[in-house]
Write a structure and sequence with these properties.
Blueprint lengths: L1 H8 L3 H14 L4 H13 L3 H14 L4 H13 L3 H14 L4 H23 L25 H4 L14 H6 L2 E3 L2 E3 L8 H7 L36 H15 L1
Antiparallel strand pairs: 1-2
Keywords: Repeat, TPR repeat
GO molecular function: Hsp90 protein binding
Length: 247
């Protein structure tokens, strides 16, 4: 206890916390140790730890007035105003002349009333309007008529069962039971006689004749074209003859 009080006096809160935690572990029924631990945690900003230690102190000794003071202070920091007021009122019951408790109760009652008035003044949050969902637009594209569907359908046939309505538009006509072009020209018998037989005929090509063999030239020179020959003997004979004539 003495070491813990010394640490609190020197505001060595971490050391004091360790010392008082050690103390409550050794003497868990000592309410003052829990109250002092609540004070240390309060100074360190551990509001919930401070509340828990003070609550334990009141449970260990319900007549220990200081435990209710520490409990009220921690609950105020946690903004649990009604509980803080109840803790201070419990302290007044044990010590009716305690001015600190009375002042704290007056302050808490005022805060609670202010918050209550504020809640009444604030208009209730309007409920979110739910609008009906817009109908989904169809993503299907309208079917378009194909070129085939735009073609004229057969509406009627002529007496021969050959033409459709569109055939007349295109200019077809029938000759000898056959559908022909509108520009088809049928020849008379006289015109056919004058023109004669103009049907295409196959051309007959004569068979190639064997090339006549040339009497002159080598065996392979059938066409008789010029070819180089060995005339050495002829030249020698002609030269000797010319020399004899000159002598």
């Amino acid at each position: 206890k003495s070491r813990g009080r010394a640490a609190v006096s020197g505001k060595a809160w971490k050391d004091a916390e360790l010392l008082y935690e050690k103390g409550v572990s050794l003497m868990p029924s000592e309410a003052p140790l829990h109250t002092n631990l609540s004070l240390v945690k309060f100074q360190m900003g551990d509001w919930e730890g401070s509340r828990s230690a003070a609550q334990t102190a009141t449970e260990k000794d319900s007549t220990y007035v200081k435990g209710y003071w520490r409990l009220g202070q921690a609950l105020l920091k946690l903004h649990r105003l009604q509980e803080a007021l109840a803790a201070n009122q419990s302290g007044i019951k044990l010590d009716p002349s305690n001015k600190a408790f009375k002042k704290e109760c007056t302050m808490l009652e005022k805060k609670i009333q202010e918050e209550k008035d504020l809640m009444e003044l604030e208009p209730a949050a309007p409920e979110p309007k739910t609008e009906p969902a817009a109908p989904l637009k169809s993503t299907k594209k309208p079917k378009t008529k194909t070129k085939e569907s735009t073609k004229a359908t057969v509406e009627s046939k002529d007496e021969e069962g050959i033409f459709t309505k569109s055939d007349h538009v295109k200019g077809y006509k029938v000759v000898n039971g056959k559908k022909t072009s509108y520009f088809h020209n049928e020849l008379s018998e006289d015109a056919k006689r004058l023109i004669g037989d103009i049907a295409p005929k196959r051309l007959e090509t004569p068979a190639p004749t064997a090339a006549t063999e040339s009497k002159e030239g080598s065996a392979w020179n059938k066409a008789g074209t010029w070819e180089e020959r060995d005339v050495s003997a002829w030249a020698k004979e002609s030269l000797q003859k010319a020399l004899v004539e000159t002598t």
